[in-house]
Structure formats: structure tokens, C-alpha cells
């Protein structure tokens, strides 16, 4: 047990970590091009933030949070990114500055779930949020950002599905119709959904239990109940997406798992990685700010699961380049050459070159093997003879061609660049 990571968590060893670095860099680059700035919030928050911000009828709050008492406080490991980022925006009074605010984040999240492929207890998300903009321009901007990111990674087999979940006004009517529809089968609902039936029946559509899934077949859909304003915005969003050249399908069945969502809801889904097919999920949440005790702050954002993203890339056969150039290995033999090698390695590294040096003090043969193993482009050889003559040998590993050059920093740097 001592040497095993807890269930639902994963180490990222170097063989995998370089892939994470790659997608993180692409994401940061795309965000910069769209004018989004990074926000970093704490890994834990007051429990109340998630109860209010995520909603106490959600799976997250009802079953999945890592919560503990510390002194008089209840604290919770962040299960998602939107509430903390909104909390930070309110705390720092960013709403008083020119709007909108455009943020992105790159975070670990924690949910106590049944671990399976693409579902972990510590997982990782990219996300973006636009605060302060009511217009469907913002919704189209973030969908375009996600689309561009996925396109840049070379992912082709993801489908964008969009829906509108309306606003509190038009949801009332849908809610009544949905309850009417489910009433005859109330007893067959799972316990969680029995509770949702009164408090938030739309969430029943999103229940993972197969029983409940069957019961909601043919249920009234929110799209048929949209008020004029919500309908206008949903049309507007579709026009904006068409203008951006982003293909999409309308899926009236998308209900985001979180209560504060209004209007736009969307997902990027795939059927290539099994059951956990939603790689990116997002939407609009115009009432989260007030819910958290701030002013009215329209907001729209998405969360994108990095583990699922990597699974899709793997399933699509996308190779991530392991970009690890090693300009040279400095091989040494003998005490004086060793010190000379240490000095040379430090100076070359200071010049920006990537240099390997053997920490095992192997013989020349062992050091040449090491040069091959780390993929060094050159080996610089320093022995007693070389030191005495003021020369070093540089071997090009690709051709095995060996040249002798003066032992100066400039000459060596030039030779191995
Ligand atoms: P699901 O329906 O799959 O449980 P969700 O609605 O709970 O997803 P969100 O809260 O919208 O998910 O989170 C955004 C994204 O984070 C998801 O689309 C998914 O890619 C990823 N994600 C969510 N939960 C997990 C998890 N336990 N392990 C790995 N990735 C996850
Ligand atoms: Mg979930």
C-alpha cells in the first residue's frame, strides 16, 4: 500500500508528462491568441462555495466532494473550476473594471467517483470563463476557442452539440410539464431523482441510472419551451457559429450537470473512448454571481478534461513529439578532465545548450552508451591527452564522424550547436 498511489489517482511519469506539457502549451498559446489570461485559485475552498455555486441537487455536491473540518471551518477540495474563478473575480472586484473579463485555468479537480477509464478521483481540466458579457458573441468566442484548440491538436472525431436550457422564466413552464410527464412513474425514479423531482426535475434527464434514463424517454424538452429572448439568443448563437465556420448539431437532450446554467449548453463528444465520451462541457450561467453574493454577472465558460482529451488523441493515433534535444554529452576520463568537464558543461548550459554529463562516473564506453541512450547529437571527449594538448574531440553521433577542435568555449559551442 505504501508504494501504491490512492485509487482514482495517477502518477505522471516522464513518459507521459511530456504529453501533458505539450497540450498545456498549446492550450496556453490558443488562449493568448483569443486574449484570455490565466487565473490560479487555491486547491481548496470553503465548502459553502460549492454548495451554493454548484448546487445541492447535483451529483458533485450530493456524492462527490472531498470535504473536511478544520477548526471551525468546513473546507472542500475543488471539484470544478467555475465557482472558484467567479469567487476570485468577485473578491477582487473585477466587475468594477471594463468588461468582459476573459480568464483561463489549468487545474487539478477532485471528485469521489467510481474510477474507470476517463473517470478519476483526481483529474485535470482546462477551462475558460468570460464574465460580464450577455451577448452570444461571448458564447461563440469560447466555443471557437475550444474548437481551435482541438483542431490544433489534430483531433477530428469530436462533435459539437449545442442546446439551450432557457432561463428561470421559461424553465418554470417546462418544469411543470416535465413533472406532469414523470408523475405516473415517480415511484420508479432512483432516490436521488425523487429528491430532484421537487427541487430540480430537469436534472433527472441527466441521471446516469439506466432506469431513470428509460423514464425520461420522450419527456418534454426545454427547447420547445424557450421564451422569446432565449429563443432569439439560441438562434443568434447558431448564426455566430456558422459565421465562424464551426460545425455543430442541436441536441435537445443536453442538460449540464450544474444548476446555475442558463441558455447556452454545449458539449464536445466522441464515441472513440468508451462511455466517458464528453471531453468538453460548458455553457452560460448568468445567475452564478448573485448566487455567490456578488452583483449580477453574466458568465459563460467551459471545462475540458485533460485525461479524456489524451485518450481521444491516443485513439486517433495522434503522436505527440517528444521534443528533448541534447546538444552534447561531455565525456571525461581522469580527475582533471572531470573538473574541466564540469566547468565546460556549466558554461555551455549557461549559453542555452542542453548538455548531459555522466553522474555515474562510468568509463568512456559506458559514457558513449549513455550518449546514445539520451539521444545526444554530439559527444565531446575530454581525456588527459586532450587537456595536455589543448584540444578536444567532438563526435557527431549520427555519422560517427570525429573532429578535433581547440579546447575553447566558443569553438566547442559552435561545433555542437
Ligand atoms: P460526466 O457527465 O462525464 O460525469 P460532468 O458533467 O460531471 O461529466 P463537468 O463537470 O462538466 O463534467 O466537467 C467538465 C469535463 O471534465 C468533462 O467533460 C470531462 O471531460 C471532465 N471530467 C469530469 N469528471 C471527470 C472525472 N471524474 N475524471 C476525468 N475527467 C472528468
Ligand atoms: Mg460527473
UniProtKB/TrEMBL annotation:
It comes from the Bacteria. Keywords: Aminoacyl-tRNA synthetase, ATP-binding, Cytoplasm, Ligase, Nucleotide-binding, Protein biosynthesis. It holds the Pfam family tRNA-synt_His. The keyword Protein biosynthesis applies. Signal peptide: none annotated. It is found in: Cytoplasm. Its main location: cytoplasm. Homodimer. This is Histidine--tRNA ligase. It comes from Gallibacter intestinalis.
